[in-house]
Amino acid sequence: MDNLTHSLVGLTLGELVERALPPQPDPLKARTRRRVLLDTGALASNFPDLDLVLTPLLAPPLGYLLHHRGHTHTLLYALPQIALLLGLMWLLWPGARRLLREDRTARRAILATAALGMVLHLSLDFLNVYGLHPFHPLDSRWLYGDMVFIVEPVFWTALGVALALRAPTRALRWLFALPILAAPLLFAWLGFLQWGSLAGLLLLAAVVGSMARRGGAAGLVTALLACLGFIALQGVAGMLAREQVRAALARIEPGARVLDLPLSAFPSNPLCWSFATVTTNGGAGSYAVRLGVVSLAPGVSDVAACPARFGGQPGAASAALAWNYHETGSLDRVRALQRANCHFDAWLRFARVPSLAGGKASDIRFGAPGEENFSTIPYAAMAQQPCPAPAPQWGRPRQDLLDGAAAHQE
After folding, report:
1. The Cα angle at residue 143 between residues 138 and 147, in degrees rounded to 5
2. Would you say residue 406 has pLDDT above 50?
């Protein structure tokens, strides 16, 4: 997820932990405890993304592909991150140091907030099509939620409004709330959101705001329940979308083995989904990748109405599903490249939907077919360069293309 979402989740966590603690009779200590819990939640919820400093260890694009969402996005390496975060607070913040030293209840709450913040970061990153491998080194396979778009205005709106209304002054409340409310308007104007989605977000803001004005934690709890409900809705909608794609794929590619079916949600829209398929035809020694878009309610929001910015198909012939790309490749070629080109081999530790053309490879989950994206690697031009090191040994998402295993990664 984006770092604004991570920050809002962390701040919400800090507020809820503060409200769960016994009241602190000393006003100064009460303010310090709340500030420390808020900062701990926000920092812990962003800390794993410090792995971006590791990306220069490998030449582009491998540095980003293999080190981002890498070791710092695992449960094992969350432990030293918690220690580092609390250690920095101890060294750099005298008020936090006194609190940790003198208040046993606050100390436990701060430790729990740091741990939960790390876990929430991993959980949110799991939700989208990018994925992560939280159980490394016990299990280094990539895991994908395929449920929520990586930048989701539902989270911004619900949590942002609830937190804004807890600001101490009217000016600060508006300063915090206006950008949160303006962002969906801008996204709709730019074509990233349907106007129906915008209406839903404004209704959500009104509901959360109404509950927040009742006082206590009502606004935060309402926002949290709205986010959890949205995730559950996306999970169900994703399963229905996957069933539709499977049925359509069986009609146009009968007998093929489906290895993977990645889904990418549209922002704030459970009805529209971009998808990819990876299939093999063992007898022909080939594999195929396809891209398309599917609508769960063609009478309400067909593929022609889904935002074109994320794969919608204005003027599409089919109201429910549209295919927009098809590429076939040789299994022998992929296996030979993996053995002969160490840069391509390292790239395969990230790529989920590989497209090979003109001496370059791209994971077409992240860009229009035929166009380069942040995953594109010119493997042919790099063939004579030294092998990338250190290259993390993540499980290859498409190991099934290399060894013929019937892996099923949905």
Report:
1. 155
2. no
